[in-house]
Amino acid sequence: KKRTFSGIQPSGDIHLGNYLGAIRNWVRTQTEYDNIYCIVDLHAITLPIDPQELHQNIRRLAAIYLACGLDTRYCKLFVQSHVRQHAEASWILGCFTPMGWLNRMTQFKAKAGENQETVGAGIYMYPVLMACDILLYQTHLVPVGEDQRQHLELTRDLAQRFNHLYQQEVFTIPEPLIREVGARIMSLTDPTQKMSKTNPNPNSRINLLDDPKTIKQKIARATTDSLRLIRFDPERPGINNLLTIYEALTERSRQEIEAEFEGKGYGELKARLTEVVVATLEPIQRRYQEYMRDPAELEAILRAGADAVRPIAEATLQRMKDVIGLG
Ligand code: TYM
Q1: How far apart (Å, rounded) are the C-alpha atoms in residues 151 and 102?
Q2: Can you tell me the ipTM of this complex?
Q3: 272 is in which domain, residue-wise?
Q4: CB-CB contact of 233 with 254 (8 Å)
Q5: Band of the pLDDT at 36, cuts 50, 70, 90?
Q6: Any residues with Cβ below 6 Å from ligand 1, and which?
Q7: Within this chain, do residues 45 and 91 fall inside the same structural domain, yes or no?
Q8: What is the pLDDT of residue 16?
Q9: Cα 8 to ligand 1 centroid, rounded to whole Å
């Protein structure tokens, strides 16, 4: 079986973009592959975060993974910092990473913004750590949303460069797995920006744990336009985004969806979308509450996951060290 690896940062509320771009796809293909899914807490400290919040977010994200349907029979779930090899490999690979390659990362520029002199250096090294996450497990496929494409290309480039330098297949070269529908869900309040955990406006995203009333309000307030015509059209990002979410959740064709709303108003679309979102999230939230009631069970799952993946990571790290001449 091919191996998949992916991860989410426990840095805020998990939203519909994370679900449609990532988790849902992991669940769908879990029986096909040998899966490793991570809670990337070392990435979450690249920007300031309250310790208590971080601690809680890690458990919450584990409960969300399980509530969305990841099954420990098919997936190993673990917390990145529980497997020390990630940090160690990251130092080594960082020494083989040209600064110019990191300078080109658009996410670094966006996150550091005006503060390039004051942000921690972790935000700069972020893509190297991500590359190690993937490469340590000899991953074939990395299911992610569109925003991770550039990081995946860097990972491939680093792996190829390292293998070439030492003339050995130390790393498997991974492929991104980016689905057509749902890979780029946009903000509800500014549909030219992606939906994100860190947007200060909570109305910009629908969180997986939002209650029906909140979901209804957020969708009601979502930016549209004055055209009053319900069509998939990238030139009209607001309506396009609502329709895309509807398409991803109902799994119907675009023609069918446009026909459904022929001659109808935006109110109708928003009402239908609200129903579909609420119906999708309701069972997830119910299961989430059940998992959160049993912290010992969550801890046990994460511990077993880390114990199962550690030897895989260690084997790759050893090979890295051997070819370099360390140890
Ligand atoms: P993160 O935590 O920002 O996002 C987690 C996953 O959700 C996807 N995603 C979206 N998909 C569609 N629409 C959106 N608006 C949207 N926002 C987020 C992301 O593409 C991602 O798949 N660097 C990664 C975490 C990471 C990782 C890894 C991923 C660390 N190591 C190794 C894969 C493999 C990140 O910040 O994801």
Answers
A1: 10
A2: 0.99
A3: 202-289
A4: no
A5: very high
A6: 5-9, 17-18, 20-22, 40, 43, 130, 133-134, 142, 144-145, 147-148, 151, 183-185, 194-196
A7: yes
A8: 98
A9: 6
- Is residue 195 one of the residues assigned to a domain? no
Instruction: Give, using CA atoms, the residue closest to atom 16 of ligand 1.
Output: 17
280 and 317 in a single domain? The answer is no
Q: What is the DSSP letter of 4?
A: E
Q: Is residue 183 part of a domain?
A: no
Query: What is the band of 115 on the pLDDT scale with cuts at 50, 70, 90?
Result: confident
What is the domain count for the chain? 2
Element (H, E) at 320: helix 295-324
Q: Do 250 and 112 belong to one domain?
A: no
pLDDT of residue 110: 87
Same domain, yes or no: 163 and 224: no
C-beta atoms surrounding 311 within 10 Å: 10
Length of the chain: 327
Position 158 in a domain: yes
Q: Is the pLDDT of residue 65 over 80?
A: yes
pLDDT given at position 111: 86
Is the CB of residue 187 less than 8 Å from the CB of residue 193? yes
Widest pairwise Cα distance in the chain:
71
Q: What is the pLDDT of residue 109?
A: 86
Tell me if 184 sits within 8 A of 145, measured CB to CB: yes
Q: How confident is the model at residue 114 (pLDDT cuts 50, 70, 90)?
A: confident
Any idea what the CATH number is for the domain that residue 150 is in? 3.40.50.620
